[in-house]
């Protein structure tokens, strides 16, 4: 339980700003991702962050997304 509390206290919550919403729409149109994945990708792109994920099928389609797969 302490590990979970520590993880949550170190987490950052990103608001769904208009630029993230617009990027989400473009990603959904262009790459046919599910809405939650499109929001995650859009947030990473607009925040200039590297997305750490093992999702090989969805996120790999997006060339502007900086993606790191720790399991490769």
Name the beta content range.
Answer: 5-15%
First-to-last CA distance: 29 Å
Class of secondary structure makeup: mainly alpha
Helix coverage percent? 40-55%
- The helix/strand series, from N terminus to C terminus, equals HHHEE
Shape label: globular
Pick out the low-confidence regions: none
Q: With helices defined by DSSP (H or I, 4 residues minimum), what is the helix count?
A: 3
The number of E-state strands comes to 2
Query: Mean pLDDT, rounded to whole units?
Result: 92
Q: What does the largest sheet look like?
A: 2 strands, parallel
Determine Rg (CA atoms, Å): 13 Å
How do the strands line up in the largest sheet?
1-2
Summarize the helices and strands and which ones pair or pack.
Elements: H1 2-9, H2 18-31, H3 35-46, E1 51-52, E2 67-68
Parallel strand pairs: 1-2
Helix pairs in contact: 2-3
Pick out its properties.
single chain, 72 residues, two-stranded parallel sheet
Structure report:
This protein is mainly α and 72 residues long. The protein is built from 3 helices and 2 strands. It has helices at residues 2-9, 18-31, 35-46, and strands at residues 51-52, 67-68. A two-stranded parallel sheet has the order 1-2. The termini are far apart. The model has no long low-confidence stretch (mean pLDDT 92).
Task: Summarize it.
The protein starts with a helix and ends with a strand.
């Amino acid at each position: 339980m302490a590990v979970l509390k520590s993880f949550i206290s170190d987490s950052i919550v990103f608001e769904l700003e208009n630029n993230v919403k617009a990027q989400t729409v473009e990603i959904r149109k262009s790459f046919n991702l599910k809405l939650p994945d499109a929001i995650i990708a859009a947030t990473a792109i607009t925040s200039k962050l590297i997305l750490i994920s093992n999702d090989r099928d969805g996120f790999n389609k997006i060339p502007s997304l900086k993606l790191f797969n720790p399991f490769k």
